[in-house]
Amino acid sequence: MKKIDLNKLTPYLAAIAIFVIIVMTYFSPLLEGKKIKQHDISQWKGMSKEIVDFRAKTGEEPLWTNSMFGGMPAYQISVQYKANIVRYIDNILKLGLPHPASLVFLYFIGFFILLLVLGIDPWLAIAGAIAFAFSSYFFIIFEAGHNSKAHAIAYMAPVLAGIILTYRGKFLPGGLLTALFLSLELLANHLQITYYLGMIIVAFGISEFIFHVKRKSLKSFFIASAIVLVAGFIALGTNITNLLATYEYGKETIRGKTELTSEKENRTSGLDKDYATGWSYGVGESMTLLIPNARGGASAGSEDVKSETYKALIQNNVPEESALQVLNNLPLYWGEQPVVSGPVYVGAILVFLFILGLLIVENRYRWWLLAATVLSVMLAWGHNFMPLTDFFFKYIPGYNKFRSVSMTLVIAEFTIPLLAILALRKVFSDGVDKKKLIRQLAYAAGISAGIALIFALLGGSMFNFASSQDIQYKDYFPDWMMAAIRADRASMLTADAWRSFIFILLFAFALWAYLTNKLKKYPVFAMIAVLILLDLWAVNKRYVNDNDFVRKSLVNVPFQPTQADELIMKDKDPDFRVMNLTVNPFNDASNSYFHKSIGGYHGAKLRRYQELIERHLSRNNMNVYNMLNTKYFIVAGDNKQPTVQVNMQALGNAWFVNDVKLVKNADEEIDALTSFSPAETAIVDKRFETDLNGHIITRDQKGTITLKEYKPNHITYGSNAGSDQLAVFSEIYYAKGWNAYIDGKSVPYFRANYVLRAMIVPAGQHTIEYKFEPSVYRTGEKISFASSLLLIILLIGGGVFGWMKKED
């Protein structure tokens, strides 16, 4: 057996060490035992509380929760898919680092692997990994708590690495890497990022097809394509439970097609257009790729005592202490999006290198990377470029399932650093025409630095620095203060334009020094890494810094009960709902942390429930609140503290009705809720008429139906009536998993009142059960285990085969 050459391993071990040092230095509060406070993770703890508690108590996966929006599947909240054993590899790759350092480390490692596959010098690949990982958006999403998004972004690069390796004829290692990292990509469970990765792969695939046609090597192309497909199927198999459940559930959510016929021009087979394009990047805002504060940074930014705002406050006799407080929360962003946490900044240096790459990188890579970048930016414009957005919504499968079109810039944040590092590979290649390269270097620097210089010199006079969002501050900020804020916005633009200009010149000088033999290659590599890190580090620290870290206890227990919560929790009734009007009820999960909530926080609500919110709950239709068993309302009292109002009209968990009103379609069904008595009448779509079995509904006044036992996935009632009854249950209708039983025998049930369940209950004394038993979960877990086990065996076998071949 050959001895391992440690000298050859040095750059790779150094890379790991450098990545760990950088990430732990950036997130140094982690070393003090602190945790990052993330809005969406706090919300997740609220929405998942019932699920987590039930799992801890019983060891079961409930798969359903009643803690939000009346009730919904738990697939996209907190389900553990234990059959997928590939998840252990994900844990190994994170090296046991704390969150979010572990995910940034995956950013580094993933892009490092891609660059190695592309033949980049490992020392230069370290700089390239830093360039990709420190893209501002990749850090800003941590503050919001978009962990699954970050996780999926981290695995984009190694998936492409495996595919590239396969198309280069390395069929076995390429196929195995593709299967492994695509499995990990899907495990991250952010399908929107995976979708954008798919767009990158399609662009690459088209380029490869053209390349192989020209080389007359289509046989190799089709073999590679077949291997990639097989690898894809294996990866899909390992994650099949989640994917099938999400696909099944997605059709019933706001990402599926509505049955209502109103607002046809805004409807799609997925999300409504105005909802999907709510976060659209402005055309001019795209300049943030080069100049971070081109549109003012974050919506709630801060300034210092040198700012025009501070001067204006002091001049208008605002006390210094109050003025300093105001400076910490200023509306500095003047772009077109409703609210942002920061800009999408890939780095002035990388934009410069991207332009250089368009001049010097071989056609096999530059054209598809350029096409993907341009498409990414144009799609991010959303409603600001509706012809393209409309085309994708109508004709590109799956595109209309995702919101926040500005997120497509993730593609540009991937392709720009990739082409940039390929440009550097060309610069440091042997045998290049250095004189020609210096001219091309001057062109790229002239374009990128020239744009920055124009904004530095003229930016303050090119715009009025007003935002359409400014009108909301009219009642808070006088005209003189808004004028000062706009002056600060102008200063931010020009300052960052000068900043980008200087970084480009410094970087161009370093490359020029190498090309003119004034500096050696490896010192220049170090300068490249340092300059890129300095540029991106400083910008990222504006938005994610030590102030975002707090004591563990504040993260682990994000919500504290109010007196109102404590009063409600004394009610031992196991199943009722609460409406909290002291928060934004339909965009906040704090209420779900303590109670079963009418509202909640989730991007994939059941569509019918969302429509119920829009048409009735938001308009305070008490009949609808009553049928949802809203037993308590939390409102602001006279002292502004939350107080409890008891709703004596709440109908309870189930009740018998007097009659049925049949309607023709969803429009009539939701309209009928406007004025009806849910205690007396059930509104039923004609599609369920056969489920009534021709019964003439007559309510037994002495009949009873009561809740006997509650679990999120298994609810038991007892009934007793002298004749057959129509029972309405205050539980959300979802036919893709809920099964009904009477005395242990399966029975049909149907939808009533737009979102609830109903069934014919026979005369006599009976036990009625609803069990959430989605077949997609049981079947999927079997396939997932088999597929992930197969993948592990193939990886071990491939590793052994590769080692033996190397030994031979």
Intertermini distance: 10 Å
Number of self-contained structural domains: 4
Taking strands numbered 1, 2, ... along the chain, how are they ordered across the largest sheet?
Answer: 12-13-19-15-16
Largest sheet: 5 strands, antiparallel
What can be said about this structure in brief?
This protein has 808 residues and is of the alpha+beta class. It folds into 4 domains: 1-27 and 81-250 and 519-545 and 779-808, no CATH class; 34-77 and 559-650, no CATH class; 277-514, no CATH class; 654-773, no CATH class.
Give a structural overview:
- The protein has 808 residues and is an alpha+beta fold.
- The protein has four domains: 1-27 and 81-250 and 519-545 and 779-808, no CATH class; 34-77 and 559-650, no CATH class; 277-514, no CATH class; 654-773, no CATH class.
- A five-stranded antiparallel β-sheet has the order 12-13-19-15-16, with no helix packed on it. It has a four-stranded mixed β-sheet with strand order 6-5-7-8.
- The longest helix is centred in the middle third of the chain and has 37 residues, at 479-515.
- The protein is globular, with a radius of gyration of 30 Å.
- The protein starts with 5 loop residues before the first helix and ends with a helix.
- The model has no long low-confidence stretch (mean pLDDT 93).
Draw up the topology in text.
Layout: H1 6-26, E1 35-36, H2 39-58, E2 64-65, E3 72-73, H3 87-93, H4 101-117, H5 122-133, H6 136-144, H7 147-154, H8 156-167, H9 171-187, H10 191-215, H11 218-238, H12 240-250, H13 273-276, H14 308-315, H15 320-327, H16 348-360, H17 363-380, H18 386-395, H19 409-427, H20 434-462, H21 479-515, H22 521-541, E4 549-550, H23 552-556, H24 563-569, E5 577-580, E6 596-597, H25 607-615, H26 622-627, E7 630-636, E8 642-646, E9 654-656, E10 659-663, H27 666-671, E11 681-685, E12 704-711, E13 714-721, E14 725-732, E15 738-742, E16 745-747, E17 750-752, E18 756-761, E19 764-772, H28 775-807
Parallel strand pairs: 5-6, 5-7, 10-11
Antiparallel strand pairs: 1-4, 2-3, 7-8, 9-14, 12-13, 13-19, 14-18, 15-16, 15-19, 17-18
